[in-house]
Design goal:
With 447 residues, this protein is of the alpha+beta class. It is 33% helix and 21% strand. The chain is built from twelve helices and 15 strands. It has helices at 4-9, 18-30, 35-46, 71-87, 145-155, 173-180, 189-194, 226-247, 263-290, 368-375, 406-415, 441-446; strands spanning 62-64, 93-103, 113-119, 134-141, 205-211, 217-223, 296-301, 303-308, 311-316, 318-320, 333-335, 343-348, 357-359, 386-389, 419-432. The strands form three sheets. Strands 4, 5, 6, 7, 11, 12, 14 and 15 form an eight-stranded mixed sheet that branches. It has a five-stranded mixed sheet with strand order 1-2-3-9-8. Strands 10-13 form a two-stranded antiparallel sheet. Helix 2 runs antiparallel to helix 3 (35-46), helix 5 (145-155) crosses helix 9 (263-290) and helix 8 (226-247) packs antiparallel against helix 9. The longest helix has 28 residues, at 263-290. The protein starts with a helix and ends with a helix.
Length: 447
């Protein structure tokens, strides 16, 4: 007799597949076959449909577009190579690349800043929690740059958390409806309102400068999807972990994936598009509060998942450099470098072995804390530009010296044929969060 107890004796794991396994075993027994083999075959189809082993390290096509200039940069490049070698073992990847601004960003095997990975599936860990970190420009024309920066300082919002209830800005109603109807976004509507028209902290900024080509004043903002994006990332990682445990336990948790053709995969892809639309609207809500009638505006993301045919291209701090990467692509991309350097305006060249990407900025050679330790927290000479810290306290880890040399990055973009620089936004001034945690409420209370 074949029953549940017999299946357990044969080594099957309990589950919803037991009735089908018993039926298959009984049919095999009646036909003179091996009932245990038939039951195990059912389990293999249902419980363990596939087990994907890791690849050999460095077995994928890989493009490396970075030239170190000194021992510090050489050490950075070696660290990038080590983490990309481990990442390349992920079974469902088909290719990788690194940009001139590459630097490690987590444990070994985590995709670095400036890293790109091509896959048949969607990897939440490869776009990170700052989903759709992006840059947007509004060309304002012949206006006063100082007055523009003054207005910006009065209306924007930097630092942790969202806006106070009396300062919130409502996102478009259609976007809010999209949150409610998606399994990965439902319940995040309150966060989507509270964090709308905010910019966060770290390297996010509001920049005012002049187009080198025309002298017109331009406004540029840099930030991602704030708490709604962070929560989507968290939910996506949970869904990816369930897949990892089922089909590839050897894969690093940071590189787990959601199967693109599954119901979860389709819902997650749709959620990414909603978060992208929210982030774009977030940029332009701030722009409109400063100057609602720009002559021109466009934007691009550099922390996202892009689709070309059946391949999902994950850019972590990497900018898509093919003309039609999205319906709203302008053919130009923005590449900020540091607060004292021009923002590059470029046209992508879609280099195949770069997987169609170009850099997102200047990148770092050492971590924030290492830079502060090295410099003793000293501030760069910022005379000549109007630098403002929203919190009132400067952040030494965001000084220009914390980044790779701006002119070296621009030169490597040209040397490797990653993009064609067509204009520059020369700096007048900028606003960043600064070290807002110094006077955060919990620290005040502790003191």
């Amino acid at each position: 007799m074949v029953d549940g107890k017999k299946l357990l004796e044969w080594g099957l794991k309990p589950g919803d597949h037991f009735p089908a396994a018993m039926e298959a075993a009984r049919e095999a027994l009646a036909a003179g076959g091996d009932p245990r083999a038939a039951a195990l075959a059912i389990q293999a189809q249902v419980v363990e449909p596939r087990r994907l082993p890791l690849r050999e390290a460095n077995s994928l096509p890989h493009g490396e577009f970075i030239e170190p200039e000194d021992d510090v940069e050489r050490a950075n490049v070696e660290a990038v190579r080590e983490t990309m070698a481990e990442l390349s073992r992920t079974p469902v990847l088909s290719g990788t690349a690194v940009m001139p601004d590459a630097c490690p960003a987590g444990k070994l095997g985590t995709i670095p800043v400036g890293g790109i990975a091509a896959s048949s599936e969607i990897h939440p860990g490869m776009h990170s929690a700052d989903i759709c970190c992006s840059v947007a420009i509004s060309v304002l024309g012949d206006v006063d740059p100082r007055a523009t920066l003054d207005t910006a300082q009065a209306v924007t919002h930097f630092g942790g958390g969202g806006r106070m209830p009396d300062k919130t800005v409502e996102p478009p109603a259609a976007l809010m409806a999209s949150f409610a109807s998606n399994q990965f976004l439902a319940g995040l509507e309150k966060d989507a309102v509270q964090h709308f028209a905010t910019q966060g902290d770290g390297n996010h900024f509001l920049f005012v400068g002049r187009l080198r080509s025309t002298g017109e004043v331009a406004l540029v903002t840099h930030h991602g999807s704030r708490k709604p994006g962070a929560m989507l990332y968290k939910r996506g990682m949970a869904a990816a972990e369930a897949v990892r445990r089922r089909v590839s336990r050897e894969t690093l948790r940071t590189n787990a994936w959601i199967e693109a053709d599954s119901a979860d995969g389709e819902a997650y892809w749709d959620a990414l598009q909603v978060i992208r639309a929210w982030t774009k609207a977030n940029h332009y809500a701030i722009h409109d509060m400063i100057s609602p009638n720009p002559r021109e505006r466009y934007w691009n993301e550099h922390n996202f998942v892009f689709r070309r045919g059946d391949t999902f291209l994950h850019g972590k701090g990497a900018t898509p450099a093919w003309r039609d990467y999205a319906d709203d692509a302008s053919g130009r991309v923005l590449i900020p470098l540091n607060m004292g350097a021009p923002i590059l305006i470029a046209e992508g060249l879609d280099r195949p072995d770069a997987l169609g990407f170009c850099p997102h900025g200047a990148g770092r050679n050492i971590s924030r804390s290492a830079h502060i330790k090295l410099t003793g927290g000293a501030h760069d000479d910022l005379s000549g530009i109007d630098v403002r810290w929203f919190s009132g306290i400067a952040d030494p880890s965001e000084m220009p010296s914390a980044y790779k040399r701006a002119d070296a990055i621009e030169a490597q973009i040209e040397r490797f044929g990653l993009a064609k620089v067509v204009d520059h936004v020369d700096p007048y001034g900028s606003i960043m969060a600064g070290d807002w945690q110094v006077n955060a409420p919990w620290r005040k209370k502790r003191r």
